[in-house]
Amino acid sequence: CEKEIADQQQVLTLTQKQADTITQIIAQLKAKIKKSELEIKARNITITRLGGDIEVRNKNIDVLEAKIGGMKDSVSELLRKSRELGDYSALEALLSGQNLSTFFANVDDFQSVRGKLSSLLVDIEQTKVKTESEKKALETSKTKESDLRYRQIEQKKQTENLQAEQQQVLKLTQAQAKVYQQKLAALER
What we know:
Strand content: under 5%
Low-confidence stretches: none
Radius of gyration: 40 Å
Shape: rod-shaped
Largest sheet: none
Structural class: mainly alpha
Number of helices: 3
Oligomer: single chain
Mean pLDDT: 84
Order of helices and strands: HHH
């Protein structure tokens, strides 16, 4: 009877150690779940920020496209006037009584303005291209963050399932320990 009591005591001790180990595992799983929740929250904030940045880039692109449209209209007007001046020869200017120096100054002014508008148009176009590339990079980052968030949510679900399983095992182990305690008490009696 004393040997059975000693054996039962050993089994009870092992069962209680298993319960303690399972309790530690559950605590670790809870910590892992909490960490996952915080990481998911951080990803959500990052995704929101990236969405705002993309929206700003879209607005910049719209503004730049409007400027480019206006500049193209100005350039086309200047080209038309430039053609008119080109068609209007120096001889016609002389015969019309217009001052020849004024005629050539106007031609130079138109050439200068047309050149400046062209370079400004190129600058705006380059800025638009750069903004669009930044927008694409932000969209790529947003997609990457969304994918990471999805993976983290899936890992969190797996961890929660594992935690639920461990709690079931803990309940069974504690129930077993209770049975062993009752057997031990019966043997001791």
